[in-house]
Amino acid sequence: MASTNLQKNENSTVCSTESSARKNVATRPAYKISEEKESYKVVVELPGVPRSGVNVVVEDGNLKISGERVSTASKDWKRLSGGTVSGYSLTLSLGEEVDQEQIEASVENGVLELALAKKAEKQPRSIKVS
Amino acid sequence: MKYINPVNYRQNIFSGSPLRDIEKELNVLFGQLPTWGSSKVFEDAARQYPKNLSWYDSEEAFVAQFDLPGVKASDVSLEIEKGVLSLEAKRKSADSSIRLSVKVPEDVAEEDISAALEDGVLRLTFPKQAKAKARRVEVRDAN
């Protein structure tokens, strides 16, 4: 597991060196966290990143979210301004409450939604009064 | 390349700021949460539009692109009046709407302006009128 991820990182380094003509900076995306009864909801804005390009990795108690923006601009076009954000990277530390095996992710319209289930023992439990 | 990791500099940025308290609260909830900073950006996002605007010049048209994350194509309405394009987009997820205007470049065929939304990025295409396009002038032999 660890070695696979390391490999991935090396690859991305090579990629960014090759495309250094364009300013290649991974920006921290806007995100929002809210707590629900049995889970935490994390919403991350990743505009320009197609669903297939969103990476969510749980590693060493961290939730790592990244994605490269796919430019829809043709290479023949002359860039007049803007276009400096090439990708996003965000690392969130998971607390002990989160069940790392139960993380669900969905992407729609450039927004990633994660549902992080709380561990069963951390969920509110009603106790019957006899 | 080293990506900037919020975990690395969270201590410096928020020490001594009012956000620190909120961050502490979140740390209680989340263990070690990086920063609260981005969440504010998220809330204030509506004020910062157009976000990440870029302009391109293709031979045929001017193209403007900017971010509209969380917006469906059916929730965007566009209007052009007196050389200004006004956009209104509803964001159901954030329960907010985005309003912004973009000045239409000169020498653009207004009636041919088109818009496309993909992965939360809106692209506006402003086709150039004939006179704005580069024209190749043929040089003929005088003889």
Q: Strand tally of chain A, please?
A: 9
Q: Multimeric state of these chains?
A: heterodimer
**Biggest sheet of chain A, strands in spatial order?**
1-7-5-4
What pattern of helices and strands is seen along the backbone of chain B? HHHEEEEEEE
Sheet/helix structural class of chain B: alpha+beta
Count the domains of chain B. 2
Q: Could you tell me how far the N terminus lies from the C terminus of chain B, measured between alpha carbons in angstroms? A: 62 Å
The low-confidence runs of chain B, each spanning 5 or more residues with pLDDT under 50, are: 1-16, 23-46
C-alpha-based Rg of chain B, rounded = 22 Å
How much strand content do the residues of chain B show? 25-35%
Q: Which architecture of the largest domain in chain B does the CATH hierarchy give at level 2?
A: Sandwich
Features:
heterodimer, A: about 130 residues, mainly beta, Immunoglobulin-like, four-stranded antiparallel sheet, about 45% strand, disordered N terminus, B: about 140 residues, alpha+beta, 2 domains, three-stranded antiparallel sheet, 3 helices, elongated
